[in-house]
Amino acid sequence: MGHARAAAGRADVVHYQWLPLEPLDTLLLPRRPRVLTAHKVRRRAAGRLARLSSRRLMGAMDAVVALSEDSARQLRALGVDRGRVRVIPHGAFDYLTRLPAETPLPPELAAVSGPVVLYFGTLRRHKGIDVLIEAFSAVKGAELWVVGMPDMPPNRLRELMAGAGAGVRFVPRYVDDTEIPALMRRADIVVLPHRVVDESGALYCALAFGRPLLLSDVGGFIEVAERHGAARLFPAGDAAGLTVALQGLVNDEEERAGLAGAAAAAASGPYSWERIAEQTKALYAELVERS
Asked: CB 219: neighbour CB atoms within 10 A?
């Protein structure tokens, strides 16, 4: 930490992604133009102390980067000065598309021949996996794979697994980077049924692989659909609405192809690291010029 603080003292701009002890770190920030990327903005508004700490930290910054327009709105509602908030999205995880080695699908998944709907990510309550299982029970002509490390009460996960029909496969474990490409390339639809969301690593994976996306209408997911045409939306928490949307995509190969093309274009355009680097460098130059 001492080396990091010394380097920060020599820098023209200091950009923070995370600060481990925000109340203390706020007092120790170097007197340079300072930028903070605001992750998990909803947690910052979850209680009075969290809001106070966040306002103090962000008030000490010359710029606060939001990863979506939705997060920017939340930051402004939290009291962050509008002029300090800049929207620079997180990039697609395109490094996963060019790994030196990939792990093939396990035999039981590789043997599946029909359309595959994939949920990928840590299994948590707020991610709407229960809604997805309920919705999928009425979907015909496809198989659902629910893949990711459980982070929810074991009894609840067992209930979900017991209630899932024959067309649902659970892979409830950690999946490393080398396993992700085969899963993404096999998926005909990637569905993320979150009840709430700030940002999603699974979304950035799916964009990188140009997968057709079906997303709940929350948070930054809305921008992916409405600004870039890279996803179809359904009402968050609405199992019946998700059933209709899923069945429609399962039956419509042409629409899936359109969504896949839009996802690939988003990954190589607004969600590319080249574009993000340009926006970030422009912000740094502006701050240096003002200092």
From this structure: 24
pLDDT tens figures, 219-238: 999 999 999 999 999 999 99
Q: In terms of CATH architecture, what is 94-268?
A: 3-Layer(aba) Sandwich (3.40)
Question: Is residue 249 within 8 Å of residue 266, measured between CB atoms?
Answer: no
3 pLDDT above the threshold of 80:
no
The model carries a pTM of 0.91
Could you give the count of Cα atoms lying within 13 Å of 7 in the half-sphere of its Cβ? 7
Tokens of 127: 């991610």
| pLDDT attached to residue 1 | 47
For the domain 2-91+272-290, what is the CATH superfamily, name and number?
A: Glycogen Phosphorylase B; (3.40.50.2000)
d(CA 147, CA 153): 16
Contact 104, 179 (CB under 8 A): no
